[in-house]
Amino acid sequence: MTLKNDEFFSKADELIAAGRFIDSKGWVPATSGNFSARLADGNIAITVSGRHKGQLQLDDIMLIDPNGQSLDGQKPSAETLLHTSLYRRYPAVQAILHPHSINATLAARLFKTEIVLEDYELLKALAGIDSHETRISIPIFANDQNIPRLAAQVDNFLNQHGDTHAYIIAGHGFYTWGGSVAETLRHLEALEFLFDCEIRLHGVKQP
Length: 207
Hints:
Catalyzes the dehydration of methylthioribulose-1-phosphate (MTRu-1-P) into 2,3-diketo-5-methylthiopentyl-1-phosphate (DK-MTP-1-P). Residues 13-199 form the Class II aldolase/adducin N-terminal domain. Its EC number is 4.2.1.109. Belongs to the aldolase class II family. MtnB subfamily. By secondary structure, this protein is α+β, with helices and mostly antiparallel strands. Helix content is 37%, strand content 19%. The protein has helices spanning 6-24, 80-89, 102-111, 147-161, 181-202; strands at 34-38, 44-47, 61-64, 95-98, 114-118, 135-141, 166-169, 173-178. Helix 2 (80-89) runs parallel beside helix 4 and helix 3 packs across helix 5. The model has no long low-confidence stretch (mean pLDDT 94).
């Protein structure tokens, strides 16, 4: 068994704090969502399957290897491959957060294949964006219980269309990532606001 070091415990504390904040906003109802952070040795701290994200304790954060295999005997999220595939693609990414928010759920019903965010000041909360005069597209994928197939679909999309800051899974939630837990949490909060703006602008029900 791989021993958990000080870096693991530090990242676990960050994920626990993020979970409490995200839950306080109503973005991870019941036991939904999953969070992770990459360690310097390439292993990953990730939430244990089925735990309430607003009530996380240290034992609710486990250790997996870069391929998603448990290193401490606990069971990771069924969606672990969606985390490991993003870490494999983006060496600079150090954290991934996946809420099941109402805004992401409604946005997928309303916009179907992508949600376009354009000319919002808050776009500057996303890494690499320094002007409101920006247009980004957040892709929407159909929900799929076959996680390897869904991960491959996301990979193929990114190969064809280039990088993005997040993606939505229809009727499910969204994934976003960044260079730290704090940066990823900033992305999550900004995207929640922007999704809400677009939903209100276009209306939950269209003729």
